[in-house]
Automatic annotation (TrEMBL):
Record's protein name: Glycerol dehydrogenase
Keywords carried by this UniProt record: Metal-binding, NAD, Oxidoreductase
Catalytic EC class: oxidoreductase
Protein source organism: Methylobacterium indicum
InterPro entries documented for this protein: ADH_Fe/GldA (IPR001670), ADH_Fe_CS (IPR018211), Glycerol_DH (IPR016205)
Amino acid sequence: MTQRGYGGPLRYVQGPGVIADLGRYVAPLGDRALVVIDPFFWDTLRPELIAAFEAARVAATFVRFGGESSEEEIARCAAEGRAAEAGTVIGIGGGKALDTAKIAAFRIGARTVTVPTIASTDSPTSSLGVVYTPDGVYDHVVRCGRNPDVVLVDSALIIRAPVRFLAAGMGDALSTFYEARSNIESRSRNYIGDGYAATIGGYQIARACHDTLMRDGRAAHAAAKHGRVTTAVENIIEANTLLSGLGFENCGVSGAHGIHDALTVLEPTHHFLHGEKVAFGILCLLVLENRPPAEFREAASFCRDIGLPTTLADLGLSEVTEADMAKVGDAAMLPTNVIRSVPVELSAGIIADAIWTASALAAELSA
Ligand SMILES: [Zn+2]
C-alpha cells in the first residue's frame, strides 16, 4: 500500500456551553435540519435548542432517538429527514444516536452534525456508523463516505454524565495508540475511504492521545467525579473524542477491539461498557505482542487507578472455564475480526493464552 490517506471532520468545537451556538454552526449548512435527539434530553435541552434554531433561521424537526442504531431506526429517521427536506441531520446523544444520525444523513445525502452528550465513545468524529439488530446485537459497519461537517462538544453537558462514561472513554482512547502501532507494523489499511496507509499526522494524533491520557487522565477522573471542569477534564474530553476518533479512523484498530468483540460471546461481559472491555483488551494485546513489561505496567496501573477492569474477575469472569475461553479464541479468529492487524502469528490457543496471562499479570501487579 503506497497511497497514504487522512480524513476527519471539517470542524471540531469544544467547550462549556457551546451547544447554545448550535444554530450558528448549522445555519451555513442549510436552512432545514432534522434533529435526532436522545429522549433523555427531549424536555431538558430541546426548548433551548428550538430557540437557538429560530434565532439562526433554521427550520428544525425533532425526532426522539429510539435507543438502538438498527436498520429500522435508521430508515425511520431517514424518512423523517426526507419528509422535512432536511439538508442537515444533527445527532444529539450517545454513540448509537450519533451513528443513527450519521447513517440517516448518508442515506438522504444530507450533511451531518454530531453533538455527543457523553465522552465514552469515539463515534462523534468518524465517518463510520455501527448497525445493531433491534435487540442490540452487533450487525455491521456502514462507511458513510464523509466525516461529520461539525462536531460540537459541550463539556458542561458531558460533565453531568456519570464519571463511569468518561473513564470508559479513556479505556477506548487508551487503545488508540497501541492499535495504531499494530497497524503500522503489519502495514494494514486504515478506515479512510477504501483504506490507505496511515499518514504521519494520523499516527502522531494517536500518540498524542496516549500521552494526554497519561498526563491528565487521573486528574480528570478525580475532578469529573465531583462534576468539576478543569483543564485536565477538557484535555481528556478532547483525547476521548477528537484524538481517539481521528487516531482509530486514520490508523485502524487491532487486538484490543478484536478481543473486546470476542469476549462478548460470554454473557457476563454484556454488563460492561465498550471502553471497559476494550481496556482489558489492551492488556491482552500487549501480552500478545510481547511488549516491554514497563508498557504493560503503565497501562494496567492507569486502568486500575480510574476504575477500569484489568482482570477477568473484574469483567465478571472469575468462573470462566477453559471451554469458555476456547470459544473466545475461536470468535477472535473469525475472518471478520479486526485482530488480524496484530503483527504476530495468531491462533485461537495463542489468543486464549494471552488473555489468561494478561489477567494473571494484572492481578499480580495489583496484589
Ligand atoms: Zn472503541
